[in-house]
Amino acid sequence: MKWSVNPSTPTLLDANLEIAASGLPPNEEVRVTLTLLHSNAQFQSFAKFVVPGDGVLDFAKTASFEGTYTECDGMGLFSSMCLMPSQRLGTVLSFGNVEGLFLNYQLHVYDRKNRLLGQQTLQKFILDPNVERREIAVGRIRGVLFKPRGAKDRRFPTVIDLFGLGGGCREYRAALLASKGFAVLALALYSYRDLPKFNTLVHIEYMKEAIDWILGQPFSSSKCSILAHSFGAIVGYQTVVRYPGISSMVALNGLPYVDGFGTVLENGKTVPSFPFRRDHAKEVVHMGNVTHYSPMWDVILDNEAEEVAKFRIPLESAPEDVAFMIVSSGDDRTNCYKRVNKELVERLKNANPRRRVDSVLLPNSGHMIDPPHMPHIGIAYTPPVYWAQGGHQYLQCVEQRQLWPQIIAFLRETIPADSMKEQSKL
């Protein structure tokens, strides 16, 4: 048999592939597996097909009748990968430095008697060769900068990329965005190098320092956007209402108020957050050793809505030209983002009908929203807790494939063009 892979690998992680196998036994059942073997995690997907009469199995044209997905989907195997049984519960695919990193996938085809008919190695990478990576340690700022190489006199739409619980500096989203023509600072908030170890010690002034630094670079746009997830979105929201220089924000499952799971400091003092009580903990659902927090938040929002409202971040006070893209998951098991963000969108639109507010609901997705072809995270381990994240193994990844170009388009439309910076200088 022969393989046809277009474009030929290696390709960027978020790139789609057209894969077909020819020379297979016509009208026979075959099983195809895709395995990702990474140093810290191993994932696998599988699908069963009936080979068409011409002996050519094109994944984009032939539907799987059984497997980790059952659709006609050319990237279905990539979008339905499951953590292999040998891996520890809560293991996620994570990377440090993405420079020179390749993800190796093994594609195998078996007949009904489990005999190997063919195999193929596929590779994906995260850092485009045309993107430069530079570690940043300026003042208190700690992170990694990604931007297109060359074009010394060119300015790029600029983004600050923030993640949530777990800390560290996660580079993959920033690196992929840079391949689309953005200058992106993957900014660590805590638990990275000499930054505070815990998310209870994040100073909001740190964000102002990062904004001032990135906008002071010769390659930056006149304003920047913030792309942030979870606790990172709480920090981003706090930043938008305090400091200039921000044109827009993309919030991925971010709370529009401050809760007690992660606090922010301003002028050395803790920004008030919703106080958790012991009776709240009774509403947390434990299934085995996996913790589901969203039921607790449903009860809190049902019974204490007025108290929660006291800790809202006053996003209505953000400059009226700041645009928002608010992304909520319908199956998030960590909080009720669909519920609270519906209220937030209404609040923002009522306060200023002229403000751009894009609301995106991912009905089958859980908490962790990633770029295309990252494996679904149903459970995450943040010591000492196994957090239920939610989401459908396959459908969430499909929704992420649809969301990614929407995010890129929103950023391009809401970050000022290069000429705006020249005009501001004049």
Automatic annotation (TrEMBL):
SUPFAM superfamilies, alphabetized: alpha/beta-Hydrolases
Gene3D superfamilies in alphabetical order: Acyl-CoA thioester hydrolase/BAAT N-terminal domain, alpha/beta hydrolase
An example Gene Ontology biological process: acyl-CoA metabolic process
GO molecular function: fatty acyl-CoA hydrolase activity
Residues annotated as domain Acyl-CoA thioester hydrolase/bile acid-CoA amino acid N-acetyltransferase: 14-136
Residue intervals of the BAAT/Acyl-CoA thioester hydrolase C-terminal domain: 202-414
Protein name as catalogued: BAAT/Acyl-CoA thioester hydrolase C-terminal domain-containing protein
Active-site residues, record numbering mapped to chain: 230, 332, 367
Family note: Belongs to the C/M/P thioester hydrolase family.
Domain of life: Eukaryota
InterPro entries membership: AB_hydrolase_fold, Acyl-CoA_thioEstase_long-chain, BAAT_C, Thio_Ohase/aa_AcTrfase, Thio_Ohase/BAAT_N
